[in-house]
Design goal:
With about 200 residues, this protein is an alpha/beta fold. It has eight helices and eight strands. One of its GO terms (biological process) is thiamine biosynthetic process.
Amino acid sequence: MIVSITLPHQQFNETRWVNLLFEEGLQKLHIRKHGQTARYLETYIQEIDSNFHSRLVLQSHQEYAQEFGLQHIHLNEQDRKANRHVEFDSYALSTSTHSFQDFNDLTPIWSYAFLSPFYASISKPGYGIDSTLLQEFQLRTNNAVQLIALGGMHKDNMEEVVKNGVNGVALLGSLWNETDPVGYYRECAKKLKELRNENNQ
């Protein structure tokens, strides 16, 4: 699985690229626009083909999910620990974790969880440079929740995490920094498929 996360600020032609990415096969897009208004988000979602709305994940303004017609909510670590998931028990849920211990503690109510940072962040310079997650895969005991690798992920380092058994990767800076996000996604999807075949996953 390849998941993408939006940048917090608006990109030029962003929703056009989103539609094209979905046409190319992108499975999930996390809309992360914490600093924007609900009305901005409503317009953003309306600019995305309604056929793809089932692939959208709301990462802020979750209380508007029903109004926006979305089916998937993402809660950050703080909200998860505050048990906010009980407010959204009719939605698909995902969350964020930052250690294998926290990931292993998740129950199957979460369809997947980001674990980060695996590599130095592309969108947050300096973040993740001392990460040890790559050396800790043997600590994973939770196979009921899909593990999505996040943090500095790009097409040239996917192989290392896939061979260690992650269920998917999340693209952020590497995707949106490209002049042709669709072409870059296509390369990543091809690489991931090849790796899955090689590892019989």
